[in-house]
Queue: 2 jobs
Job 1
Amino acid sequence: MKKRKALGYVLTGGILAATFGYGAASVFAEPVTTPNGPWVQDEQNLSLAGLMSNEQLEAKLKQIEKSSQGKMKLEQIGTSNDGYPLYVAKLGDNAPNKKRVLVYTQIHGNETLGTEAAVDLMQKLSAGGKEAKNILDNVTVWFVPRINPDGTANQYNGKQYPTRYSHQTWDPAALGLPAGTKAPWYYNAEGSERAQNNNGAVVYGIPGFDLNRDFNPNYDFNVNEEIKRNPEKVAAVLNDSKTNNGAQAALVFSPETRALTKVVKEFKPDVAIDLHHRGFNQLSEEDKRSVSIQLLALFTTKPFTDPFSGKVYKVDPEVETLSKKVNAVAYESLQRGNSSFGAIQKYPQVNYPGSGLGAIQLNGTATMLIEIKGQTQTLGQKQNGMLIETAKVPVMAVLNGLADGSIEKADPAVYDAIPDFSHPVNPGGNQGN
């Protein structure tokens, strides 16, 4: 992948974001001897071999488009801060009578397996066959793989070390804001506590944003225009701890987030699916299986008020119900086949209007978060392969359920009954997306 010229830090457009916080990322788990691991030894950093680099991903996407015989259309939707192109892969003709599904991955650069799963799904749908034809006859599917290529390609001590964050320096003066204006709370300043993992062993060495904090339900908000009109107002929002925090508001500064928002605004998906990684859990005190996936249907539990427009956003009850049905179908699909990967929990309930799925859901789209266990560095190639296969199952189940209409018959109570988050193996590790 030929890197394009970096965009720098002066924005060309944007939207206001409500923001939120998850736990700091950690790639290590404490050793535990239980079935259905692996529980990786402390400080063990396994090979990233077999996972696609940014260059390999771009080449693969173009190869799939070429071999799809017109079934998949690849479009560039933007450029990352470091100059990597961002893509959407479109499958289906987006006819008005079809359901629309958006799948996006790797908004955190060190959460890689969702991208591998998405590429496999693109290949499956574009290759044809009875199942793929039935889906694409009834559903349009867009994929945005690897939203954070900069974090994916991050280097530490001369070696590849994917990180959660993007690469972008906070420079208020360049943005037209008063000198000393505080950065968004989710900014990862070089050398700060946020720039290290929880035991201080790894300094990522780069400034940047946690991109999954950089969204807002107000898709039309343009941060540059707002700064031109009223820089003092923007600075006041950022300088006030009551508004610059996880459940309130900050400004969208990342080109990656703006690119995804543009796609969502154009596509207006009925369902959006976001693939992440988390830490390690066992299912329960009695059932000591390692939880392979956690699911979450609802991302805001309170109304959100845009501090600039004053507009109030809240989740439509029908959207909440469909979200639960989607996740119920996903859960039941993982109870079949390999029982060791049927150990599923519910992700802890959150109130995050500034997450990707939070903002999308507040605009009328049903949502599903898929949290795959572990970070890539903590898992061997065999385990990575098994988890990639596992992550594909719920996505295909949802696509099939939308295609044949059966998802409407799903019982939301199935989602409510999914076992809650419990029994983290390393409570200090990454338990959040």
Note: Residues 129 and 300 are 39 Å apart (CA to CA).
Job 2
Amino acid sequence: MRVVVTGAGGLLGKRIVQAFKDYEVVGVYHRSQPETSPFLVLDLSSLNLRPIEELSPDVIIHAAALTDVDKCEREPDLARLLNVDVTREIVKVSKRTNAFLVYISTDYVFDGTRGNYREEDETNPVNVYGLTKLEGEKLVRDVDSLVVRTSTPYGSNPASGKDNFALWLLKKLKAGERVNALVDQVTSPTLNTNFSLMLREAVDRRIKGVLHLAGRSQVSRYEFSLALARTFGLNETLINPAHFNEMKWFARRPMNSSLNVSKAMSLEHKPMSLQEALSELRREIEANDIVWK
């Protein structure tokens, strides 16, 4: 079986290609090279996806997206190009090749007024990022597909040369620097390794429709930060509680976009609790000597 992964060099993409390593997996990237061979260098914004079509994939996992929330708000045309127009072309390729399409989406399709969102709950994005990802969700419904929503992904690998929140926080605390973490924004932090194994199982089982694959714990950024510090034996007093109204973000954020993962609990690789995931993160980091250099 041939699996094509777009965004294969990203935070989720790098772990996804590892999860499918016993298949013929082709990672598609533009700037950040994936850990696959073979791979395909392709600028998806050109909307010329014939090179993907020529691979005759059995499965397409579309993980590429513009995920910078403020950049999406400032440059809505770019967000629409990368998150909607590219997805439309991916759908066309899926139709022509009869490939099973997996679309990676986000908890930001919800407005965050209550949290613990189920797959069937009404969507109502509050920013351009969430709106364009929701439009992508609607496009993929026209083909044999699975929409996977996740929340606050993190892991032991940087994404496109940038540290994710967990790595950034660990380095700050290791250096003895103070950091701010929100007490009033709640999500479902998701370890990318756990996510990729759940995704692999969902693809193998050809689950269709919408599925929430995220961490089992629903916590604030502040709670997440404290747990991370404790897991790595770092000084948690360096973490300052902060609030939404203190942030100078350009785009609005949902306050509680946490995801209900009851359906995913039927998988063999179940959503991890926060402590389970952080223990795994520490194991990965210590095994690869990533943070402490």
Note: Residues 76-97 form the longest helix (22 residues).
